[in-house]
From TrEMBL:
Family: Belongs to the DeSI family.
Species for this entry: Erythranthe guttata (Yellow monkey flower)
Positions with biased composition (Polar residues): 168-185
Name of the protein: PPPDE domain-containing protein
GO biological process, one term: regulation of proteasomal ubiquitin-dependent protein catabolic process
Keyword Nuclease belongs to the record: no
Length: 264
């Protein structure tokens, strides 16, 4: 009731669906609990930032069931005043202003929570980008993050008349060809290394050998597979770029998750 205030909740989701906890140590060198997405629940709706400010009746967002729900308190702000506030900040929360590291859904939830109840959302959610970038492998992921941001800004909400399947299909083929070429080059290099080893009489003469980087190779392979999967999904013309990126990452991470489980 308005006399007692409106309850304000924070729905917290794990976009990786458990894969971050399972694979983060392997690929980042540091344990990450989840890839957090949040939405603020008030007035019977959930408000969140995704290709612009969006809202949906509670329980109907595309993110499914929240991993946890945080009670932020009560607000006495009327719904019409809140909606006017959202219109005011709307230009700052668009597909073009989205940044995975500094201006994402969790930053939106935090700003809305401060407006409604004068409190911030939990620090462990807001600090996730810093955790990733401060991990041993975090800085190496920056180019991939910047590329994904560019893709999301360009096609997060594609207009049907502008969508060209043939261009997407050509992009998918280009990525696949690049991956195939890289795989062939990698195989050729390994064969040459084996030949050199077999011709070497003393196994101790390794001072000039280039040190191997298994973790770096694995990370590069995962990034290539995600790019290939993303281009293939976009070629179907059935999903937005943001949805295709999430699905591509999920598919590749699941494949590696199954591989790791099978090897144990």
């Amino acid at each position: 009731m308005a006399e007692d205030g409106y309850k304000v909740l924070l729905n917290v989701y794990d976009l990786s669906q458990g894969l971050a906890r399972q694979l983060s140590t392997t690929f980042l060198g540091k344990a990450i609990e989840a890839i957090w997405h949040t939405g603020v629940v008030v007035y019977g709706h959930e408000y969140y930032f995704g290709g612009g400010i969006q809202s949906a009746p509670v329980g109907t967002t595309p993110y499914g069931t929240p991993l946890r729900v945080v009670d932020l308190g009560l607000t006495h702000v009327p719904k019409d005043v809140f909606e006017m506030y959202l219109q005011e900040i709307g230009p700052r929360y668009t597909a073009e202003t989205y940044s995975l590291m500094t201006h994402n859904c969790n930053n939106f939830s935090n700003e809305v929570a401060q407006f409604l109840v004068g409190a911030s959302i939990p620090d462990y959610i807001l600090n996730l980008p810093n955790e990733v970038m401060n991990s041993p492998m975090g800085p190496l992921m920056l180019p991939m993050i910047q590329q994904l941001e560019t893709t999301l800004r360009a096609g997060a909400v594609p207009q049907a008349p502008q969508f060209r399947p043939s261009v997407a299909a050509q992009s998918a083929q280009t990525v696949k060809s690049a991956v195939t070429h890289n795989a062939a080059e990698s195989t050729k290099k390994k064969d040459e290394d084996v030949d050199r080893k077999s011709k070497t009489e003393s196994p101790k003469k390794t001072s000039n050998a280039v040190p191997l980087d298994p973790l770096g190779d694995a990370r590069s392979k995962v990034q290539e597979e995600i790019s290939s999967e993303f281009a293939a999904i976009m070629a179907t013309g059935t999903l937005r770029a943001s949805e295709a990126a999430a699905l591509a990452t999920k598919r590749v991470m699941q494949r590696y998750g199954h591989m790791n489980t099978a090897q144990i």
